[in-house]
Structures are given as C-alpha cells and as structure tokens.
Amino acid sequence: MLVLAGLAGGAVVGAAYFAALWRSVRDLAGDTRPERRLLLGALARFACVLPAIYLATRAGPEVLAGGIAGLLIARTLTVRWLPRRVPAKASD
Predict the structure, then answer these.
(1) Segment 10-44, tens digit of pLDDT
(2) What's the predicted TM-score (pTM) here?
(3) What is the pLDDT of residue 83?
(4) Scanning 25, 32, 33, 78, which has the fewest C-beta atoms within 10 Å of its C-beta?
(5) Where are the membrane-spanning stretches (predicted)?
(6) Measuring CA to CA, which residue among 41, 43, 49 is closest to residue 11?
(7) Every domain of the chain and the residues it spans
(8) Is 26 exposed, middle or buried (0-12, 13-18, 19+ CB in 10 A)?
(9) Mean per-residue pLDDT over the chain, rounded
(10) Which helix (H) or strand (E) segment is 17 a member of?
(11) Is 52 helix (H, G, I), strand (E, B) or coil?
(12) How many C-beta neighbours within 10 Å does residue 41 have?
C-alpha cells in the first residue's frame, strides 16, 4: 500500500516537473532574457521535487521506490505525449 502511495505521489510530482520544464523551454524563443527563464524555471522545478524526495525518503524505502517509479512513468508518458518536431533547417 505504501508503494502505491509513493507511485501516485511520484506521478503527480513528475507531471508537475515535466509540465514546468516543457513550458519554460517552449517559451524561450519569445523571451528577451532566456537564461533568466531557464534559471528561474530550474529553481521552481527543484523547489517542487526536492521536498517530495525528502518526504519520500523519510517515509521509507517502499514509498521512495514507488515515488521513483511514478516519476519515471510520468517522464515516459510526457515523452510519448509531446509531439516530435523536426527543427527547421537554417538557410545559408
């Protein structure tokens, strides 16, 4: 039962993490200071994930294992869900 709780928590945290990553990368082209967006986005994502990892570690190895599995499932679903775009060739 603890593994399922960790799995659900990891999936939620993973979905939030990858949604924030996708949004920050997607919006880079229109930003005047893309390095600032990348830095703030990374800090926000870490602020979401690190407390979850800490809590899962404190809850026990079953919850941690479930959380890691949930995070990996969220990553796999995100990669499959996002369209693959071929970058346009630069004109010479």
Answers:
(1) 999 999 999 888 888 888 888 888 888 889 889 99
(2) 0.78
(3) 74
(4) 32
(5) 6-25, 37-57, 63-82
(6) 49
(7) 1-31, 32-82
(8) exposed
(9) 87
(10) helix 2-26
(11) helix
(12) 17
